[in-house]
Amino acid sequence: MTSTETAVAQRGPTRSRATTILGGVVLIGVAVWLFLAFVASGPDIRTTAEGNTIGQFDAVRLLYIHVPLVITAYSAFVVTAIGSFMVLVKKSVWWDLVAGASAEIGSLGAALTLLTGSIWGRPIWNTWWEWGDVRILTTLVLFMLSLGYLAVRRLEGTAEVRAKRSAVVGLLLVVNVAIVNKSVEWWADQTLHQNSTIAEGAIADLKAFTLFFSIVLGLAAYSWMMIHRFRLAWLERQYDRFGIDDAIAARRSEADHAQPVTQGESA
Amino acid sequence: MTHVPYLVAGYGLSIAAIALYAVSVMRRAKHLAAKVPAERARWMTGNDADVIGES
Fold this sequence. Notes:
Distance between the termini of chain B: 59 Å
Oligomer: heterodimer
Shape of chain B: elongated
Number of strands of chain B: 0
Number of strands of chain A: 2
Distance between the termini of chain A: 44 Å
Radius of gyration of chain A: 25 Å
Helix content of chain B: 40-55%
Strand order of the largest sheet of chain A: 1-2
Structural class of chain B: mainly alpha
Largest interface: A-B, 55 and 42 residues
Low-confidence stretches of chain B: none
């Protein structure tokens, strides 16, 4: 038995020493993140020149989950686009599986981005959803497109045709990421969103550190999930390719080991 | 603390969804691993063609 086979048998099909360590780091990171988000950092309360109290108060803490989700989804779709490009250029199975795995995680990230954005928007903008907001709308399109990508991967056809079709949609995802990102600048009068909080230095001190930490944690969690999802995709492919062969081999093996029955003995 | 229901909903739903997804990936892998021989279970172990449509 090789070391990889031993690892598969001992730790499970998608786990390895690296993912165990990374998973542990992420779990510790989650504890630190929750401490920073809810205990260490304070609410957003500011006083105007007229003496009025303004700010997001404790709703600002929702940004420590909303922003990392956005950035994780963006990153996942960029990886999908890179994988899709490599599929078109090299017809690489490895990149095809990377693209598919990343798109699935990106879809979850985009869905949760919309959800947490809506929950944050209710107390801050006094609305759950605003159809006129270009960033919300383009993010919804991005989410729908990612679902479309996953659907195209499951369409009938040869592996080559299916990979080519999905790669084209995968490339569109990264175009849409750029549109979502720039939408608040291109259509500044059609959005409730502000420009980039980080780029404009609109957030500072422990709040900025918490936001930065949450983004790093989100990307670490994405990496951990990506490795597992990729390995599952590989398993699915192997089962699709060799499942019947393995079943036939198993039956043959059983037949070879079975007691031979001759005509004379059967009586 | 203000906005507690929103914080609980935002963090609770997101963490729960991510955890459920992670568990579902692990379970699907465990289920499939029983059907795929260990020597084919990891991409590093595959010695088949790495080109789409040439397998």
